[in-house]
Amino acid sequence: QAQLVESGGGLVQTGGSLRLSCVASGILFSQYIMHWYRQAPGKERELVASITNDGSTIYKDSVKGRFTISRDNAKNTVVLQMNSLKPEDTAVYYCYAKWGLRTYWGQGTQVTVSS
To answer: Given this model, what pLDDT does residue 45 score?
Structure first.
């Protein structure tokens, strides 16, 4: 059974860093494009960063230069390194895997940035 499990969220002050991890099981991880989304209270879920199976990346404009997405296919893991965090980065962060019509979401991890 496919499963994505995120970890690494928490409370951090403005300017701090957090490292989110998402471990996949039950899927052929190397074939999937992996994404990080986030959803703040009262707002729609939005795409933060994506990484293809060959390592190409894209980022939401507001996180460029601060966030880095990476993957380790041997460990079925995708990581979002978040630096220089701002209060507006506060949200629940979700891992999302997509390969054709096969899609899976993680349960989310809360990130709170205090001012």
So the answer is: 98
